[in-house]
Amino acid sequence: MGDPRRFTSHVIGPGHPWQKERIEEEKVLMNEYGLKNKGELWRASTRVKGFTAQAKKLIAATGTQADREKQQLFQRLQRLGLLPAGAKLDDVLNLTLKSVLDRRLQTLVYRKGFARSVKQARQFITHQHVMVDNKIVTAPSYLVPEAVTVSFVGASTLAKTDHPERVPIQKKASAARKQVDDRRRRGPGGQRGKRRSFR
Question: Which of 172, 192, 173 is nearest to 182 (CA)?
């Protein structure tokens, strides 16, 4: 029957597992972009390393095949919104991890104001409320091309701007805080607390 197929990981993890500075930086990025685990972060980092490795190889390469590959690399990165028009190979080497994380669907849904938090944006995507160019996308890590539109599904109730789940979180927090303050003033019996006299 032949040898069974072995699946190997295509994610390049950190070279050293216990580096305090790197762990702290990863923690900040995971909170900022609402990532589920370190694997998502390393997957984005692997993409950046792949782009830069290809650019380094093409800098030293010559010939028609090398020119064709350079053009294809530029077109791909410009389509993803990672490079501006007229960029050079040196610009590819300047790509950072944040450059890729900024193009994730989860990040764009949050920054467009469709969700109150980046984690809520992830929930909307996985629950099939978000479309990219009229196609439902359920992968929060999907890299959104530059010239496409991100919107809610027409049949989704979240498409309404006054939906309770899209109300700015500051307003809900202030309302909840006001209710707590009112309860404290009224006391456990539902009436305003009376001062005790210690005579």
Answer: 192
Eight-class DSSP state of 146: T
68, 79 in Cβ contact below 8 A? Answer: no
Do residues 130 and 105 lie in contact, with contact meaning Cβ atoms separated by under 8 Å? yes
User: For residue 141, what are the domain limits?
Assistant: 112-166
Whole-angstrom distance, CA of residue 88 vs CA of residue 94: 10
Element containing residue 132 per DSSP (H, E)? strand 130-132
Say how far apart CA 53 and CA 47 lie, in whole Å.
10
Can you tell me the distance from the alpha carbon of 140 to that of 104, in angstroms, rounded to the nearest whole number? 7
User: According to the model, what pLDDT value does residue 175 have?
Assistant: 64
Rg of the chain (C-alpha set): 25
The per-residue pLDDT for range 134-186, each reduced to its tens digit, is 999 999 999 999 989 999 998 898 888 888 888 776 655 566 677 767 777 77
Q: Which residues contact 186 (CB under 8 A, 6 or more apart)?
A: 192, 193
pTM of the model: 0.78
Nearest CA among 99, 69, 93, 96 for reference residue 81: 99
Count: domains in the chain: 2
Residues 82 and 39 grouped into a single domain? yes
